[in-house]
Amino acid sequence: MLLGPSKSGKTTVRKLLASLLNAQTIVINPKAMDKPYLLGTMDVDTREWKDGVLTVASREAACESGRVVWVVLDGDVDPEWVEALNSVLDDNRLYTVPSGERIRFGRNVRFVFE
């Protein structure tokens, strides 16, 4: 977790560290979108699941086996969406998509809150 006031260099430090560690970064600003767009939603008419931005990023990160991947959540942490990441942040390293699907992360994937 990177903490500090606006314009204090958090992003610069994160980018520098990612470059030094050769980490792929996937940056998401959760506050810039509503919860269904972030997490995904079920179409009520077709009953078809549509992945959200976080779900797409999670799939991409989980597919990387050899490279370090950082999923960066840039902005204030909000209980409305961070609750969905509880099992990602514990030893299970598992994201349960609102559709019920589970995405397991390897030790190479890290979630960074900036």
TrEMBL record:
It comes from the Eukaryota. GO terms for biological process: cilium assembly; cilium movement involved in cell motility; intraciliary retrograde transport. It comes from Rozella allomycis (strain CSF55). This is ATPase dynein-related AAA domain-containing protein. Residues 1-113 form the ATPase dynein-related AAA domain. Signal peptide: none annotated. One of its GO terms (cellular component) is 9+2 motile cilium. GO terms for molecular function: ATP binding; ATP hydrolysis activity; dynein intermediate chain binding; dynein light intermediate chain binding; minus-end-directed microtubule motor activity.
